[in-house]
Amino acid sequence: MTWWCELGWLDGPVAGLRVTAVEGLITEVAPGVRQPGDEVLQGLVLPGLANAHSHAFHRALRGRTHADGGSFWTWRESMYRVAAVLDPDRYLRLARAAFAEMVLAGYTVVGEFHYLHHGPDGSRYDDPNAMGHALVQAASDAGVRLTLLDACYLQGGLDGRPLEGPQLRFGDGDVDAWSSRTADLEDGSLLRHGAAAHSVRAVARADLPTLAAHPTRHVHLSEQPAENADCLAVHGMTPTQLLDEAGFLGAGACVVHATHVTDDDLSRLATSSVCMCPTTERDLADGIGRVRAHRGQVCLGSDQHAVVDPFEEARGLEMDERLRSLQRGRFTPTELVTAATSAGYAALGWDGGSFRAGAVADLVAVRLDSPRTAGADPAQLVLAASAADVTDVVVGGRQVVRAGRHGLGDVGRELADVIAECWSHADR
Amino acid sequence: MTWWCELGWLDGPVAGLRVTAVEGLITEVAPGVRQPGDEVLQGLVLPGLANAHSHAFHRALRGRTHADGGSFWTWRESMYRVAAVLDPDRYLRLARAAFAEMVLAGYTVVGEFHYLHHGPDGSRYDDPNAMGHALVQAASDAGVRLTLLDACYLQGGLDGRPLEGPQLRFGDGDVDAWSSRTADLEDGSLLRHGAAAHSVRAVARADLPTLAAHPTRHVHLSEQPAENADCLAVHGMTPTQLLDEAGFLGAGACVVHATHVTDDDLSRLATSSVCMCPTTERDLADGIGRVRAHRGQVCLGSDQHAVVDPFEEARGLEMDERLRSLQRGRFTPTELVTAATSAGYAALGWDGGSFRAGAVADLVAVRLDSPRTAGADPAQLVLAASAADVTDVVVGGRQVVRAGRHGLGDVGRELADVIAECWSHADR
User: I want to staple B48 with a disulfide (CB 3.0 to 4.6 A). Which of A205, A321, B63, B108 is the partner?
Assistant: First the structure.
């Protein structure tokens, strides 16, 4: 199959780019005239956009947590209420609808940071990976590439207190049980597995080296000042220092947020990826991270899905940095596209997010003629477009979205139904 | 005419709200069952959304100023290049397309802060208000309510240096010439006029009292630290203190941005409106204002139109405040709707932006079933919706947008054509 792109992206827009793929992998990329049999993609065609940090079930919280002020920690109470009502079937339906929304918005791969492993009271399902398998099925149904980041979550805080209440279902008991459960997870053509330490709050210092052994490993890091304060109180070092001591950092590691970090932390993070989640970091009042001070690759995630829009996320990276620095152009438009594409693929263990032989065949066509995008320089489109401007999405060589419609049908209806069901149970 | 709203907004969603209007003004508002002959509006129907601060022609800059870093002041150089190529006809076409985009996004009234008064070299058109009349025509064609804020712009800086180069066309020579030119402007059913001092940079201290006499008066205030520094150097006081001394502040005054203000400034601004422009303030690296410290009414504007989305603007108000304060819920969802609606109408000299007898009959229907809005509490929709979720827009009793289509046709095409024409001349 060959796609002929009106404008294709090779670190900038190239007119008439032809992208050929066999069995889901790109074999050839070259500018050229349209050939008979080419599939035509209008507008600017970007390589796949990566959502490097997602908790699919948080989608149920959008537009439902703003009534009473509060903080990250009160928001977390609402999130736990939703978590408590999810069984494998409801988790599948909610994740499928959330993943379908992501594909409509142009996300072609998602890193699902998954920690709802067991039954609500902590009891094991017959299939100990029933919840993870629900996510795999959801991604397959929605047509999105998935890296399932299975998160180890063993304790309720840095003081080592046990999990309780809604957290019980997160826990495998000990790190060996987490290892043996996750050893059974199998990859596929659109599926990879990775490991996650939920955070230094949730995984004890002695258990971090086990997680550190994984080639693709993620961790929530210093999103809130309270995590830093607790870590300093218990261990006399920052969360970054604790991860560094455990050998967690470096190639293959992706730290999520890293909002509140010191100069020493930044030095230790120099060879790790950092995943910024600007729309979430705004929504949860995390503060503005020192993102231009990071030396590692920067990628992006929609995290709790207050917004699902890869362009808004990329714009947020730049705009929050402008608000902090009082300077424009902190990232070039091409750097923002790299953050939204290849940097995210790499952090999720894929060779993708760029048009070259050997990369996965994921393509996203964006309108240049909508009221939002009209008049913009295509080289700067990432600063003008929105999720609503995505018309066509190809994942692994298969077209999943055509003319703005997902093959699954009415995604808004799917979301509305399953979210209403969740809250009707959560409110009881 | 009566509109039956599936959900109508009265400081919150009300099921089955009937809104009746005669000659463009609301005569009755009451919940009720749908009657034969009612016009049905699905989703959540908000009162009109106000864009209290617009420079329509800046729309040509979207997605064109991000290549080379820089600052507010280098961005202004690009803006001046566009300003230099606008004649009344091109100004009309650009503003018409920009206003049409605004209406599609749900804006029903726009405060156009207009300062391109004369020919590019400062020479007068045969009609001295040819450029202002182009804006009036553009708004009429686009079906949007307009407050034309005719801006006095007489000098090139706080030191009193004359206008030069692209600024020449802004100037009327002296404040009396500005007064006599603007005295000829006439109101209409969808048209009001107001006054503006461009800024304390552009209007001399001695001329401010003339502007202060107007019942509706706007001014750019302390958007950049440099304005404050210059004002302190020349006058020994802040821009706010200068405006206060001139009697400019108080009822009828609207200060735009007020990003960098002192505690004393905030006290002096207590009875003025403040117009925040979050998407512009991010884009131009202005910084985060102390918006929750303002005691006056807060309204919203899209300013340079890097983004035209009233929901993104309202969300930005709250989100930037969260980033600054590290607290959530700084504004309630209802306060955000008020900022986006009635506060803006009041700042523009209209009784509108709310559903009650006597207010102008402006209505905006927003989908509750899109992938973005599905699952959200309608009371918190402002934090989930986007411009792409607006389906129907009524201005002064006339339906301008129906099922997401503007009566003018392909607005993206109009924007693309006139913006390409502008840059083809600007690049010469």
Answer: B108
Phi, psi of B102 (to 5 degrees): -60, -45
User: Domains of chain A by range and CATH?
Assistant: 2-46+358-406 (2.30.40.10), 48-350 (3.20.20.140)
Torsion angle in degrees (nearest 10) through CA of A206, A211, A212, A217: -150
The pLDDT, as a whole number, for residue A70 is 81
Interface check B427 vs A, CB under 8 A: no
pLDDT at A185: 87
pTM of the model: 0.97
Q: ipTM value, please give it.
A: 0.96
Q: Is B74 on the interface with A (CB under 8 A)?
A: yes
Across the interface, whether the CB atoms of A416 and B375 are under 8 A apart is answered yes
- Which among A329, A380, A386 has the least Cβ separation from residue B388? A386
Interchain CB distance below 8 Å, A377 and B63: yes
